[in-house]
Amino acid sequence: MIASFGLQAYRRKPYDLIELWGGVTWLLAILLRWTKGENATIVHHSNGIEQHRVVVQRQSSAADAQLERWFQWDLSWFYDRGLEAADAIVTVSKYDLPFLKNKRYIPQKRIYTIPNPLPNFFLGQNVQWDRPRRVGFCGNWNSIKNIRLLRNDLPLFLRDHPEWSFSVMGVGDTEVKSDFPEDV
Fold first, then answer.
1. Spatial separation of the C-alpha atoms in residues 85 and 107, rounded to whole Å
2. Rounded to an integer, what distance in angstroms lies between the CA atom of residue 7 and that of residue 50?
3. Which residues contact 165 (CB under 8 A, 6 or more apart)?
4. Which H or E element spans position 43?
5. H-helix segments, the chain
6. What is the DSSP letter of 173?
7. Which residues contact 118 (CB under 8 A, 6 or more apart)?
8. How many of the other CB atoms lie within 10 Å of CB of 85?
9. Do 42 and 81 meet the contact criterion of CB atoms below 8 Å apart?
10. Is 32 exposed, middle or buried (0-12, 13-18, 19+ CB in 10 A)?
11. Within its chain, how far is the Cα of 59 from the centroid?
12. 47: Cβ contacts below 8 Å, ≥ 6 apart
């Protein structure tokens, strides 16, 4: 769907710069590379390289490497081809840089990281706790979000800090309580 829409848009009006977000744009990147030649620059942006997540997840636990649903399948091979079709890669974290440089999708001089956009004023300030202390989670409750970390570490934290609570949003009909001990 993304590939079809993007390719149609490019054919109607060729662009000088095409920005693609996330691994799901892999097919569009490949099709644009094949059809446009060198007429436009393709930049892949990412909030986290999906293939890197798969590698880290497999290293952390063999059980977590088992993805739960069809939309969690490991599509790294396809995502790799999409990154190879890009002219540049931009990430929002230096965390992915060693992985990208090691994979050599594109020359290192065309891999960029956006520096932390928060001014130092925000990073060093004290927090005034005039509201309840709460750990929040938003998103799908599945292994892609590394819920293993929450399952293992959150009970320890909540036991040590009983004034804190844990809130979840956007998890659908998943029963999150069943993943935690009764006392937390």
1. 12
2. 23
3. 132, 133, 134, 135, 158
4. strand 41-46
5. 2-12, 26-36, 50-60, 76-85, 97-103, 120-123, 147-160
6. T
7. none
8. 22
9. no
10. buried
11. 17
12. 22, 91, 92, 93
pTM: 0.65
Residue with the two structure tokens 């990281």: 113
pLDDT tens digits, 126-166: 767 677 888 988 887 877 677 888 888 999 999 999 999 99
With a CB cutoff of 8 Å and minimum separation 6, the contacts of 37 are none
CB-based contact 163:133 (threshold 8 Å):
yes
In the numeric block, the tokens 């960029």 are attached to 112
Q: Which of 119, 179, 98, 103 is nearest to 143 (CA)?
A: 179
Rounded CA-CA distance 14/18 in Å is 9
Whole-number Å distance between alpha carbons of 70 and 88: 30
Q: What is the pLDDT of residue 34?
A: 85
Q: Is the pLDDT of residue 68 over 70?
A: no
What lies within 8 Å, CB to CB, of 74 at 6+ separation is 54, 67
Count of helix runs (H) and strand runs (E) in the chain? 7, 6
Q: Which helix (H) or strand (E) holds 46?
A: strand 41-46
Angle between helices 50-60 and 76-85 (to 10 degrees): 140
